[in-house]
Amino acid sequence: MLGPCSVEIAAGLIVALHEPDEAPAGLPARQLPAGSLLAPGFIDIQVNGGGGLLLNDDPSVETVRTMAAAHRRFGTTGLLPTLITDAPRRLTALAAIAGEALAVPGVLGFHLEGPFLNPGRKGIHPLPHIRQPGEAEIALLTRFGMVGRSLLTLAPEQVDGAVLKRLAAAGLRIAIGHSDATAAEVAAAVGDGATGVTHLFNAMSQMTPRAPGVVGATLADELLFAGIICDGLHVDPVNLRAAFRATGRDRLMLVTDAMSLVGSDKASFLLHGRIITLKDGRLTDAQGTLAGAHIGMIESVCNAVRLMGVTIEDALIMASRTPARFLGLDKELGRIAPGFRANLVAFDATSVLATWIDGRP
What we know:
CATH architecture: Alpha-Beta Barrel
Low-confidence stretches: none
Helix content: 25-40%
Structural class: alpha/beta
Mean pLDDT: 96
């Protein structure tokens, strides 16, 4: 971590760091309050909704804009709006606007969570829309490889290795999730191009003495990045700490898995015809199934310190530098250093004070 300094920004980039009393005269400046921190803006690779809207309900530029603005209030300056398993027409609708939506400040690409998942690990995903890859849908998905840094979550035991290779070769990041894969199947998927795991511990095969599952394979494989939901509800704090000790800050990424209620005053929403209710910070359907999370990135960072037992520096790296590396953007995002984009967040012990995207507040 840097000590007190002045950050000089020009044309959307950080151009210099100065000692506090050596900043160039005559430039407009903002003095942050004593006790606050300036950090690289948070990058959230799993954002289902925000500001009262859900991407699945209306895959449009305006929905994406509303979601990005809602999460920016919680320090997120880079995100992947996430489309969960749905009818093919929703994916087609998102593909139609994805290129235009990349112009929304903060949007780095899209996360397609499904539909090639294991029905036995579906979680809240609608069973009727979980399906096997077909040629038309594979071709449509490859288009997302040219849309920023987009991500596809799939269950490798449901997808032929040749298809996985094709999707990865098209430019998609491939993550393993909603999967009952064995450790051998995970290893094969990594060989075919998978580089990530979606919401570690949740909706996946667990680690047992003779069957490591997706969890054990993730903890052991140094090539895999892993997203983790740090809300204190999805993953027990003991498992949070175990995951950090096994993977470290350079492989573990904080994600929100946020739904539409984040950044709104609503207490419920519809998801595929089911009423999802917020109570005591938990989003569930009538059967008690968790349906995403009600959390912003600043809370994820604070929870990582409190529940995972890491330093604030570790938490900030897991919220910025590591997801930037996963997306292949670590030469431009995730650090406060000359030449990097001026995507920044200022915060104190209680709230986000300000954000900048490409130097713009």
